[in-house]
Fold these 4 entries.
Entry 1:
Amino acid sequence: QKEVEQNSGPLSVPEGAIASLNCTYSDRGSQSFFWYRQYSGKSPELIMSIYSNGDKEDGRFTAQLNKASQYVSLLIRDSQPSDSATYLCAVNEKLTFGTGTRLTIIP
Amino acid sequence: NAGVTQTPKFQVLKTGQSMTLQCAQDMNHNSMYWYRQDPGMGLRLIYYSASEGTTDKGEVPNGYNVSRLNKREFSLRLESAAPSQTSVYFCASSGFSVSNQPQHFGDGTRLSIL
């Protein structure tokens, strides 16, 4: 079992809809979780961090963490074509990234 | 404010050649990291340095060496390049703790080994 798992996609979502990205992790003791966005040919950039169970909202982005079920998710509301990218989930204790989910927003 | 700067941006090597990838950060961060990114494999940690004077192996350290020259600079050396080391290499840095700070990435070095 991989330490951090993501559905590789591609995930296609109509413009204006909600995009839902999921990530599971294997180490129950993990404490820090991050979502990065990576455009093709570019470096990853941080979009959300979450440390406690529950939801954390920042603009159109909401990160959700459930430590009991060992999953973290990212919701993107009112999806825009500029959101088309690969989204990487990272669990920092292990400095481990998932392989990423490729998201395409369809105009 | 440049953030994390990597040089060179592109490099082509022949098998057996050596080279050093340079990384510098101007954010006064304690921790620095080297990753490689291959298609379908995500980001894999090669080495990291939690603080000046310390380095530790990551998931894929074989064939690489690192030097934390000072707080700002962390270099990655390939002593004898192999085609399997063809990849995109990213350097990153983070604040005061390895475990709970987000990482800031450089633009990457695209390395091809022929």
Entry 2:
Amino acid sequence: QSALTQPASVSGSPGQSITISCTGTSSDVGDYNFVSWYQQLPGKAPKLMIYDVTRRPSWVSNRFSGSKSGNTASLTISGLQAEDEADYYCSSYTGSTTPYVFGTGTKVTVL
Amino acid sequence: QVQLQESGPGLVKSSETLSLTCTVSGDSISSYYWTWIRQPPGKGLEWIGYFHYSGNSIYNPSLKSRVTISTDTSKNHVFLKLSSVTAADTAVYFCARASYDNSPFDYWGQGILVTVSS
């Protein structure tokens, strides 16, 4: 099972919106609505931000939203803030012998 | 509030067995899928495997021959054993919880860095 493909880096100015893509295949992202997104601050554990493509845990700001089209899922951060600067990873359920696969990770920089 | 805490040796010699413990507090380890995930320094996340209290376990095929995940429900502990380690196994190891076999990882431990030395 290959890792999902994400851009290495995305940047934006405070207040702007940015979108991170996560491209898989018809066997993972394209076949299941079980895509999650995690935020990882330096030296910290990943934190769940989005699950089931579009759902937000109670602890996550509504500035974060998720979507999916075909084999590509996306995370959008609206009203970008300095505290959003982190690494972001997508993950998808695959239903295979490796039930979970992660993305390659995207470093978000707030200019 | 659910909390997970990894513990174990931070240094393991090459060819030996890596053994880690995840102590869960704030909830019983029954009814969940307890997962180990690792992250080599400066790299991305890799799913290692999970164990469900029913006895069901699934491992990453790339590690399957070397990994065992188990639990001690009396102590609320989740264990990871990885045998015949090499430098490629140097990573931060996280334990995490999933409610179902297709659900996200909603709680994570802080992680523990394990370095494999020659």
Entry 3:
Amino acid sequence: SQQGEEDPQALSIQEGENATMNCSYKTSINNLQWYRQNSGRGLVHLILIRSNEREKHSGRLRVTLDTSKKSSSLLITASRAADTASYFCATGDMRFGAGTRLTVKP
Amino acid sequence: DTAVSQTPKYLVTQMGNDKSIKCEQNLGHDTMYWYKQDSKKFLKIMFSYNNKELIINETVPNRFSPKSPDKAHLNLHINSLELGDSAVYFCASSQGALRDRHLYGYTFGSGTRLTVV
């Protein structure tokens, strides 16, 4: 299965701190995607990193990909209360894990 | 607004009833999906259609039947509803054929919260 598995399951930080979430997968991939889900809403696409890329930035988001370790990380810098959400990773066949629940305290 | 829209947003119904959830996308995407999210937030793919043709059919009870009248619509009909069907159901779409889904992100609807009592 190419399902991504996020770690940790839950993360609680103070506003202004950085948040790091990890994703591991089992098989080779073409790309890996990160999504955010606010409570009661659908998933929103954040960033896509291709298998030949090692790092990608989008605003306060930084995604890394290590295909040798079959893992990816999502870093949110200078977090805000509005970043409170669940974050999911997904690989090529778009199978998701249970996500990381991030809480940013004001 | 360009989007994936689902109706209804909330659905409360009794066991044994039959219900439908509708999904429409105006993004011009070729592939549409249904996902089920359980109480533990685990998202599981159920079905995928590409241009009205069923492509993915995961291990889902026969009581669930998707219908795609055209490539912009993918509806989900559920017969004989059971308590375990209670979940949030998400519709999504992606650009291009199913084999190209790794190239693009998905656009999700806002979900339908189904409660079976």
Entry 4:
Amino acid sequence: EPEVTQTPSHQVTQMGQEVILRCVPISNHLYFYWYRQILGQKVEFLVSFYNNEISEKSEIFDDQFSVERPDGSNFTLKIRSTKLEDSAMYFCASTGTSGSPYEQYFGPGTRLTVT
Amino acid sequence: GQSLEQPSEVTAVEGAIVQINCTYQTSGFYGLSWYQQHDGGAPTFLSYNALDGLEETGRFSSFLSRSDSYGYLLLQELQMKDSASYFCAVRDKGTYKYIFGTGTRLKVLA
């Protein structure tokens, strides 16, 4: 069964450093998302991406964040200058055009620890 | 803004039936989804209600009442593996922005 993959599984970085989180969505999916989840809390929407541009972004997704689809398979989230409060689990998700359009397939996540 | 409220924790015994509620305040949405998340894992899709009423998928059922701003997930014949967090979620109408509920941690006891 096709799945969303994410790398790395765990990233430790120092405050102020840039990080890039990588995702490979399911190959025939067209809509891509990034979410974050602080430990023990709810899943928070960051951004949605379609047709090579951002569709929606939340108030969390400020100028420090950017997304890119550099090629036909990868989807990346960049945090320019990390803060302690960016420590969280980051999930990538994708949605296809077949089946339920509201069924999002989530990747296993990247745990980001900012020290 | 949109908000979806859920009970923080529910406990039940194996074999029992449990209902997890989701009450929401939203200006408009396409439908109500439910996701399961085991500790350390990713959310996985369980069900979706586009219209009012009950949707059944095996041991799980989901219900939506737009007039009452309310939905629930019903889990029957509980198994230990059902111990997880459950989130309701909506997609904002006219957007590709998804809002998740506060989450309910279900503990299934032997």
